[in-house]
Amino acid sequence: MKKFLLALFFVPLTALASEHVYLDKAPVNLDDYASIQRGAKIFTNYCLSCHSANAMRYSRLEDVGLTEEQIKNNLLFATDKVGNTMSIAMPPLDAKKWFGAAPPDLSVVARSRNPDWLYTYLRSFYLDDSRPTGWNNTVFEKVGMPHVLWSLQGKQALKEPASGERDPHVKPEFELVQPGSLTPAEYDATVGDLVNYLTWMGEPAKMKRMELGVMVLLFLSIFFVLAYYMKKEFWKDIH
Questions:
Q1: Whether the model pTM is above 0.70
Q2: Known binding-site residue numbers
Q3: Which residues fall in the annotated binding site for heme c?
Q4: What is the 3-state secondary structure (H, E, C) of 60-128?
Q5: What are the backbone angles phi and psi of residue 176, rounded to the nearest 5°?
Q6: By the 8 A CB rule, do 39 and 27 touch?
Q7: How is the cofactor bound (predicted)?
Q8: Which CATH superfamily is domain 22-232 in?
Q9: How crowded is residue 151: how many other Cβ atoms within 10 Å of its Cβ?
């Protein structure tokens, strides 16, 4: 009976381990407003055609240093009002008919997937003639999404290991067969900016919340000292 219960306990852990793939560390820095601004530009130019971010308003980008005029001139392609959300014009039924499934909203994708997953995923597309789009991905096998950033990265092929069987826990190797407009280092930096923006977009108030949390802890620390000495003063005739 004990062995049976232990087996039931470890089944979910085993399932999770089997789905694990190699992930690179994403260069996320929510204090780097310039990076977040660059990432917002990549997002609106390359992602917002198909993916919405309905929980995000363009005006929120003022929190990272952009002015209303800069937002209007550089980022407003799907609407004409800075106060609107980052929605798309594509009807979900049409998207499902064209792509097989409606592209998901990306408002909190960095929180659901995690930044390391996104950073590795966006750099792991490779040519695959067996796929309808001509692309596959080592992080998301048989992915339905085409490589929308291929003009920046170029086209790369997956190098098969000598054993003939790829271990998902080992970092895959790619060969660049057609260069893009960016060098590999520049493309990695661009993806890093995009992931930095997606991480910030998932919780724009995170940095302010953390600052407020530190202030509250400092207040409680000071209050604890005052309360301790007040307690000693009030109870000095009893203890």
A1: yes
A2: 47, 50-51
A3: 47, 50-51
A4: HHHHHCCCHHHHHHHCCCCCCCCCCEECCCCCHHHHHHHHCCCCCCCCCHHHHHCHHHHHHHCCCEEEC
A5: -75, 110
A6: no
A7: Binds 1 heme c group covalently per subunit.
A8: Cytochrome c-like domain (1.10.760.10)
A9: 12
